[in-house]
Amino acid sequence: MTQYANPVVDTPAGAVRGVRDDAGELYRAIPYAAAPIGAGRFAPPAPHPGWPGVRDGTRPSPTAPQPTRDFGRLDMTPYFGPGWVRGEEYLTVDVRTPAADHRRRPVMVFVHGGGFVTGSTRAALYDGSAFARDGVVLVTVNYRVGIPGFLDLDGAPANRGLLDVLAALGWVRDTVAVFGGDPNRVTIFGQSAGATLTGALLATPGAKGLFRRAIIQSGSGTGAFTPEQARRVTAAAAVALGVAPTARAFAEIPDECFLEILPALAGLDLRTSTATDPLVGLSPFGLVLPVQPADGLVDGPAGDVDLLIGTNAEEGRLYLVPQGKLESATEANALGQALFGAGTARMAQAHARVSGGRTHVYSFEHRSTALDGRLGAAHTVELPFVFDLADRPWLHGETGLLGPDPAPPGLAARVHAAWVAFASTGDPGWAAYDPQRPVAEILGG
């Protein structure tokens, strides 16, 4: 690979040094908000004070405090990344750009998944080289997860992780131009928990004007907990920690203790007389809203935003096959429908109504041959194709996400090109969704 001099970019908060390579330029660990320390872990994201001199943007960021997640024989490290990498300043973004030359390129802002408890910009799957190669500025976002990000507490704003993503979008609006991006052509996209957060932004009044397009990959427009459900999780966490269920009391607790009590919160019965558990027991953390995002789109920017939305054909297999729990395809499909399918359909229909035909729907159906060919078109399998990484050796082999077989020729190029086209023009290459004839574009079938 050719050796290049390290570039320096002047941002409103200070100068940042990145790296230049064959794909363009990469700037890492740029703060979009102040470090969430002590009581600040339960406060809204605060503006970063900036820095003197030139900040080192050549190394990855610390990550939000998070547990290690085990998926049995399936190697999910490319998805989850290294886990908790300690450091206070983790409310950061990475920027991958063709060049910081003040051109006006489309911008894509990625929000990672991880069940609202894990994930970071350090995950190998989120390498944005292919986006930069194809003329897109890619911004990946770290946000608070777990108790600091999503536990509902008296004296603290709800959905702090979502507020972090909003703050990151504000940073993009104010800063991305110096990285060669167009602040008026921003597409926010997310997968799993990140997709559900993206859907919530469509119903958030404060998000108006911050993005022009959105992509929801395996999320849910009906994935939020009710306030009553959230209170059950908060009460259980307070009991496990032996403190009052308030932000003031939780501010005295170190992050290590928050991680230690997570097993005590697993398996809580969150069903109520009016609501089922939207995450079917997979996580006690998530958005807390009085109205599901799909039912509140008129309050947010959804009517002015193009939407690309879809799911994988066998989402539920990720949660069953690696643990040896899959008894039938029906079981996996039912789990996937409960977690993602029903909420995605409702969001697609709701958006089509409020946006006047600016909705595009897909179904990703390529089947991974991992785990003796049983993983299939499971949750997360589309990501290597979206990021055009499907040929990477670390995704293959019997325990790799894509399995021992090579990826289908041309599929990564097709999927990635559709995402780039949508971010550039609002058209991924197929007809808009019609609620009267709800047909999805098949990818990889």
* Quaternary structure classification: single chain
Structural domain tally? 1
The ordered string of helix (H) and strand (E) elements is EEEEEHEEHEHHEHEHHHHEHEHHHE
- Residues in β-strands, percent: 15-25%
CATH domain topology: Rossmann fold
Per DSSP E runs of 2 or more residues, the count of β-strands stands at 13
Rounded to an integer in angstroms, the radius of gyration calculated over CA atoms is: 20 Å
Q: Quick one: biggest sheet? A: 10 strands, mixed
Query: Which descriptor suits the 3D outline?
Result: globular
Distance between the termini: 36 Å
CATH superfamily label: Alpha/Beta hydrolase fold, catalytic domain
Helix content: 25-40%
Architecture, CATH level 2?
3-Layer(aba) Sandwich
Instruction: Detail the poorly predicted runs.
Output: none
Describe the structure.
- There is one protein chain.
- This protein is an alpha/beta fold and 445 residues long.
- The protein contains 13 helices and 13 strands.
- It is globular, with a radius of gyration of 20 Å.
- Residues 6-320 form the Carboxylesterase type B domain.
